[in-house]
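step 4 of 6: structure.
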Amino acid sequence: MADTVNKTLEPQLNRRGFLKGCTMAAAALGLSDAMIPKLVEAAASAERPRVVWLHFQECTGCTESLLRASHPDLAHLILDVISLDYHETVMAAAGHQAEEMLHKTVTEHAGKFILVVEGGIPTKDGGIYCKIAGKTAMDILAEVAPKSAAIIAIGTCATFGGVQAASPNPTGSVGVMDLVSGVPVVNIPGCPPNPMAFLGTVLHYLTFKKLPLMDSLNRPLFAYGRRIHDHCERRPHFDEGRFVEQFGDEFHKAGYCLYKVGCKGPETFSNCPAVRFNDVDVWPVSVGHGCVGCTEPNFWDTMTPFYDRLPMVKIPGSGIIADADSVGTKVLGVTAAAIGIHAAVGVGKRLIKGKGKDHE
Amino acid sequence: MYEKHYCWSILLRLFHWMFALSIVVLVVTGFYINTPWTNTMLEYSQSWPMAWMRYMHFVAGYVFSAAIIIRLFLYIFGNAQERIWDVLPITKRNIVNLFKTLLQYSYISDEHDERLGHNVLAGLTYVVTVLAAIFQIISGFYMLYPEAAFWEGWGVAIFGNQQWSRYIHHLLMWWFMIFAMIHVYLCIWNDVKGPEGLISSIFTGDKFKHTKA
């Protein structure tokens, strides 16, 4: 058997990989190549920002996508650029030792460290649905967040509550933005987000000593400024009216637009078509599956059904769930019937009573 | 004997037809954009059906928005029949008219509470339609200019995300179709019940009142 592990996962980050990662981040940030040396300088500086990485209600997929990307240099670069003081998945320490480290960073470096939050925070019933070391996620966040310099919420759970916030949201899960005030929050949504969006934000902070420009949902504009649809490689098929009717049909094989099978690219802000994933230049639409809108607030509720254009209409109290157009057609039909009855009553009344007084 | 009364200004008639025709175009092209009913494998020719439908939808959207601006202007600065105070049930005259119209429309009473402008039931329905139109405009421009901070701010504040604005935009479209159907029916019904040149008034601006001679 070939030693694939050691071939793809180099233990050390070499200079080439380091520069390559910085250049990719500069491209993702939309910086000119003149800025790359500045970025490299900032990334190579001895003062690595201390990072506390908190895991709450989540699947650890964001960390996994960061660490196990087929581009090991990127993961190494991220771990090289920051000083990760506390991260439950990758730290060597455990138990009291680990909690001691967290406590030390928070107290000794108050106001200087970056807090990364992964996962939603349950708020129902006093937040008892997520506990670490006997403390609720709410309490841990309330303790650590005010002492941090800035917060990066990574993944859709930490930004908007994610899957556990999907209706009916049994644990009352919310994102960091809903609980923290007074500390700047950067949202890096996605399920999982592209590691480049995270790296770009960190490098921007290191180089310019400030957070990148953000939209009204606190998402950095360099990564979430444009809709997927507007940069999609299948967009010409959309304008030309060439659509996949169902998965596996001849149109699908021809690589046509996935709009009619529910692609949410037209309503999703992300740089997936430009940055792509895993160093092999793929992203969902490039391999024939529509976008599911994972970087948008409440995407589990608003983007489903994933294979239809619009959400279903739920009529409260009746248990009726139907698509918008069939409800619309029925209401229009009932209206037409009501008009017919109204007219018939009018005609009938006139036949019985004769013309009214106002028609003398 | 019939007496001629000037009722609708040229601006209101312009609003009406801009609104009506743009709605027809918006509904047809909107349905296409939501569920494109054509498909082509003719890769050697170009017809751009989706691009054209979207183009027509946007042009009609601007006409629709301009019509709403005209109507909002007339609600404040129009003539006595066009101002919003004439249709809001806030005066005794208007509340009485609302109930009398409801009774007349449900065939309970034959009394027609005559007035020159809209009856209050119709006027209120138009106010609701204008409100729905404002939501259509906000959601529409939010989808058209996703990167403009102004529309992004309002869009996120009202709808949460683009998909929800698309959903509301689509559901409200059905209101305009249902409204148009009832509107046309009741105009014909009123014209039959009490001839005052109601339908021609939206072309000419004049209504005819019966005088007790």
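step 5 of 6: annotate
 - Chain B touches chain A through 45 residues (CB under 8 Å).
 - The longest helix of chain B spans residues 162-193.
step 6 of 6: archive
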